[in-house]
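User: Um, any thoughts?
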Amino acid sequence: MTETLVSERSKPKNSDEYIEMLRSQLRGNSECGTTHYNLAVALMGKQEYDAAEKELHDAIDCSPSLAEAYVLLGGICLQRGDLEGCLRYNKYATKARAGFAEGYANIGFVLLQLIDGKDEQADEEKLDRAIKNLQKAVIHNANFVQAYTTLGNAYLMKGLVDESIAANLEAIRIQPNFPIAHNNLAVGYLQKKEYELAIFHLDKAKSLGFEVAEAMKQELAPYRKSKLI
């Protein structure tokens, strides 16, 4: 009982106290990768990205298999607009830990962002690689909602409408009120001219707070039995 009370009293009251507590722990044991990682997360919460980046590199030096640290380094790169850096660190993450779903999903996401329309063949290769990595993400984590929706987007870009619909249906099976998946389903069903389903999912996305495209609303308006939007 006494130990519990002491532990409760020693809990940090705010982020600054938490950061100082972690730094104190590192002064006693600088080789703990998890503590370096936790400190980096806390520093990122205060938008101290340079300091967080240093701690993440220290975390990896101490614990080379800490895939989450690579992902956060990728996140810092993304925050700086460095897509190639983000891609590189997420590749490191999947090498650091086999079957690391988040790393594969991030690779797929970044590859889609790198499609720029300048080279059709290169863009097609990026799209195919994105799909492959996103498929790996959902294989390794069958409940990864965001990966399913990103995969659905990639399938749409590839012209695989049925596959896109299947991926987004899987997303709402896991999380029924995920608005992006409903919007994606509206796009897919519209392309298949299944207007009733398209309207249903568009309205669902809107009701969940998603800002649906005006062009979609206009295109579906003639097929409504009652004007809901």
Summary: The two ends are 59 Å apart (CA to CA). Confidence is low (pLDDT under 50) at residues 1-9. DSSP finds 13 helices and no strands in the chain.
